[in-house]
Write a structure and sequence with these properties.
Elements lengths: L1 H46 L9 E2 L2 E3 L1 E23 L5 E6 L6 E2 L4 E5 L2 H27 L14 H26 L4 H54 L2 E3 L4 E6 L6 E2 L6 E16 L11 E6 L7 E12 L5 E8 L11 E18 L4 E3 L2 E8 L2 E6 L1 E6 L2 E6 L6 E3 L12 E2 L1
Parallel strand pairs: 1-21
Antiparallel strand pairs: 2-20, 3-10, 3-14, 4-6, 4-9, 5-8, 6-7, 8-10, 10-13, 11-12, 11-14, 12-13, 14-19, 15-16, 16-17, 18-19
Helix pairs in contact: 2-4, 3-4
Amino acid sequence: METVLQLKGNGMFSYKLTQVALIAVVTLTLSVFAISCGGSKANVRSEATPANSPAAIEVTTAQAITRDLPRFFEATGSLAGDQQTDVAPSIAGKVVAVGVELGSYVRRGQMIVRLDDVDSKLRVDQAQAQVEQSQATLRAAEERVGLRPGQAFDPNRIPEVANARVALELAEKNLRRSEKLIESGDVSRALYDQQKAQRDQLKEQYEAALSFARQNYAAVNTARANVANAESQLGLARRALSYALVFSPIDGYVAERTADLGEYVSPTTKVATIVRINPLRIRIDIPEQAIPEVTVGQSVSVTTSAWPDKNFNGRIARISPNVSASSRTLSMEADIENSSGALKPGQFATVRILQSRSQPAVLIPSRAVLTEAGVSRVFVIKNGHAEQRLVQLGQSESDLVEVKSGVASGEQVATSNVEQLTDGIAVRQ
């Protein structure tokens, strides 16, 4: 009995021991989990702790200054040659020689192309022969009327007319003598009638000789007209021959050469374009309120994107008398000095016209301005912090730029590390 109880007691002991072990294991596991969770929360709290304030950005500054700034207004336009001409031949023909290349400089009267002139020379020879034939015909006609070179026409110098006139004058004298003698009875009526009939016959012969002389002189006039016409045809033929050479009408540069050797061209075919590039012209429109500031002869300066750091001088040469009703602007032309040839026709340029008065302006270094998406801003340094200001810019003066609004004279603006600044950030000078 005692043995049985003892065995039962040993079993209960083992069972209780097992329960205690299980409870210990569970407790240990929960403790580890709790410690792990606590550590994670500690890390989260540690990471969520705010960082230290950022270090101050080092900048350099410059003071906004006030200066009297010469005032000007600007306008844009395209440069054009002072003179430009498309060269075309006056006659059709085949190109047998080319005297220029693209970009070459030509003088007025210099050959650009030469056309085949064989046919033109033949027409000149033919016209020359016609002139000589007409001149021979004229000389023969003048000889028939007794004319010499430079002598005026007088029909009485023709032998036939002169003889008929002498005979008529003699008959007139004899008839007048007979009229006196017939009254005294010394001459019979029959003799008088015979002399009168002879006088009338000689008069008809004289008038016939005059008429024939005048007809011959009319032939002279016709021959002279034929000579003049032949000489005119000769002149046309020689002129057509001269057209075989196509010359440059102006001094300038060859902007385009379209004719090639062996090509057939006509008067409607352009063979080259010549442009004079000194001076150059630029046409611009100025606002209506600026009209009193502009006069002919006034100096201007021009800048281009090809030469951003170089100004080219010029003067206002022509001003339109009318203001455009639609845009309220006045058109004007300026001549730009281009002896160096740096500027080219067709370039886009900005014209600056200086006004007669100067006005005070607030200026800051251009490197202090940060422009993004068309918005310009600067950072004014006050009490160790950067203060962002939106600004409106005006004219440029060397490395300075005018600030029309946003910055007052005497304020300090950041000029370095501008891209790193934000409104309110600490800075160190």
